[in-house]
Amino acid sequence: MFSREESAKIRKEFWVSYGKSFPRKWLLYNTKIKDFGFKFVADRKTAEVTLDIESSDETQRELLFDQILSLKKIIESEYLPDVIFDKEYTLDNGKKISRIYIVYQKKFSIHNKDTWADCYDFFNNTMPEFELFWYEYEDYIRQAVV
């Protein structure tokens, strides 16, 4: 077990190492839609690349999710075949969001440095596909919140 301070230091080292190994400006929150952004997630047991719709306005969240869901076959066939759609995803803090995401399938722990390199490759191969999808269908997705 790691102390809270040790765990925080390891998490910081993980993200700094990733940024140095793969320097690139990612889209992330620069979608220009409030509470709608891409994320890298890594914790003690899993890693994911996500598109989170976090709006507290449930109607807006549902409209955005449904707009992307209407593109499900395209996403799966052209970009991310293992994508998961979860309209009612609950974060660790209890907040409900909608999440479209890809789970890293290999064994991973942010506390195990031996698992980092493969996870970095997963991040570096998956996020660009998500971004390509976004750039191709951005105008269509935005129609949900106009």
UniProtKB/TrEMBL annotation:
Pfam families found in the cross-reference section: DUF4268
This protein's name: DUF4268 domain-containing protein
Q: Which InterPro entries match?
A: DUF4268
**What residue stretches are annotated with the DUF4268 domain?**
10-137
Superkingdom of the organism of origin:
Bacteria
